[in-house]
C-alpha cells in the first residue's frame, strides 16, 4: 500500500459522506412538504453504503477497501396524519399527510456524517504531512 491508496480510500469516504449529507439536508428541507410532483407528502430518503475495492491491485489483495453509496431508498412507512382542516392539502376528514421525518434523528445523523467527513479530511492531512516529511529526509 502506498500513500496514494490512503488518499483514494479517504476520498471515497468523503464522496460517500457528501452524498449522505446532501440526502439529510434534503430530508430536513422537506420536513413540512405535503405535496410533491409524484403526489402525496415527501418521503424520507436513506443512504446505504458498501465497501468497494480501490484499484485492481487492492481488489486482488481485498484488504484495503473504500466505500461507495450503493443506493438511496425512500422510506416505505405510512406518512403521519395531523389534524389541520385549514391546510390546503387536507383531506375531507381534515387530516393532512405529513412526511415521516424526525428532525432530531436527522440532526444526529447529520452530526455523525459531519464527524466522519472531518475524520477523513484529517486522515488526508496527516498522510500529506507524512509525505512531505518523507521528502524532507532526502534533502
Automatic annotation (TrEMBL):
PROSITE patterns per the UniProt record, alphabetical: FLAGELLA_BB_ROD
Cellular component annotations (GO), alphabetically ordered: bacterial-type flagellum basal body, rod
Boundaries of every Flagellar basal body rod protein N-terminal domain copy: 8-34
The UniProt record lists the keyword Metal-binding: no
GO-annotated biological processes: bacterial-type flagellum-dependent swarming motility
Residue ranges of domain Flagellar basal-body/hook protein C-terminal in the record: 93-136
Top-rank taxon, per record: Bacteria
Keyword flag Iron-sulfur: no
Keyword list, A-Z: Bacterial flagellum, Cell projection, Cilium, Flagellum
Cell compartment(s), UniProt: Bacterial flagellum basal body
Family: Belongs to the flagella basal body rod proteins family.
Assembly notes: The basal body constitutes a major portion of the flagellar organelle and consists of four rings (L,P,S, and M) mounted on a central rod. The rod consists of about 26 subunits of FlgG in the distal portion, and FlgB, FlgC and FlgF are thought to build up the proximal portion of the rod with about 6 subunits each.
The protein's name: Flagellar basal-body rod protein FlgC
UniProt source species: Desulfocapsa sulfexigens (strain DSM 10523 / SB164P1)
Organismal lineage: Bacteria, Pseudomonadati, Thermodesulfobacteriota, Desulfobulbia, Desulfobulbales
